Give the backbone structure.
Amino acid sequence: MSFNAAGALGTNDSLHAFVAGDRRSMCARPHARGTVTLLSFNAGGSLNCTEALHSFVVQVSTKHPDWVVCCVQELDFVQSSSKEFELVDGHKVFRHWPGVGSRPMCMIIHRLYRDFVVRSFWHGRAGGIHLFNPSLAPRTLDQCSMIVLNVHGAHGDDLGESLFDATTVMRTLRRRKGSTADVFALGDFNVDLLPLQACDPFCDDGGGRHYNPHRLQLLRSWADSLNVCVCEQPTQVIGVPGGIWSEYCVGAPISRIPLGEQEGLPSLLDYICCNPCLIDSSFLDWTIFESDHALLAVNAKSRFNVKVRPKKTWNPDSLDTCIDALQALDLFRLKSVIALESQLHIVQSAYGCRKTCKERRQLRMPLDLRTLYARKQLTTDEEDKRNLVRLIRARRTAWIMQLIA
């Protein structure tokens, strides 16, 4: 990691204020340029025709006009192979059937952003797309690079296979232009997080719950492997479902309720796994479509990350000034090696040597070789210049062989 201060950290006070203050105001990567809305919905097989899917998209566009991607689990009951198609209003749909024992899934891309899809990929009970827009375009997505994963966790002991499918999708999408893309994994993970909430209305009743400490540990370990976090609680719940569970949904973040003769208790199964710094707000919406699951809506920041290669060597232009800057840093406040390395790269970039590659290469040469190059530049006689070129080649070869030995 490195940081170009552009001369803003010229004094010890400004450097210390930067370290002690808000690091988001000055970072090595470009700032987030805009906010996009990501959606996830378990339809329970209710979107079993194109008309129903179109009606669902119309309602979503009315309530959440800034949506970009909508991940749908349990789309319908049709056991057919994966395909791509467009709706009447131009939205693009990537449909996938995981196989026997699972219901189809799909990802819906808004018509304004379908041209930014670099690649889509499905594997088992997970799928994903890579949205890539390196330049600013009017009335469209701001400059961004993000990978959106649609995950449907399996019941029982097969949860690990579902998470492995998501990891395979993420690694496949990163092979092309997604090496620095932000990852957003959302869907129905089938791991109940409601017992972790202080407002859990069923804390005294453990029967019929999806909660399992081993499944939760597996989910969090998977999230750590992707360098993301499990965002447990939405900030708002819109509306309540009908029936006997409506009063419970008022005071607790419930995303799934049992309908009809289904057994069990309400639970929180739909959420997002990503970098918490990229989430502005997330909420559950029960007013979009009639189902046993609520619609998950997440307002996330879109940004374009640039890969930065840190310098391997460092020659400060002013040793005394650099030492003063290092002394101004309170290194004992840093709790990790990554944070320590980040602050050291800040000082390196602010007080590093600003000589060109040619100047640094000349300083590494022996004095006699630099003298021969200087004589070659000053001479005007062609015969002398040819002789100097032969001497330079011989001396340079000897110097390189000495370095190799």
Q: What stands out?
A: The longest strand covers residues 34-42. Residues 69 and 109 are 5 Å apart (CA to CA). The two ends are 33 Å apart (CA to CA).
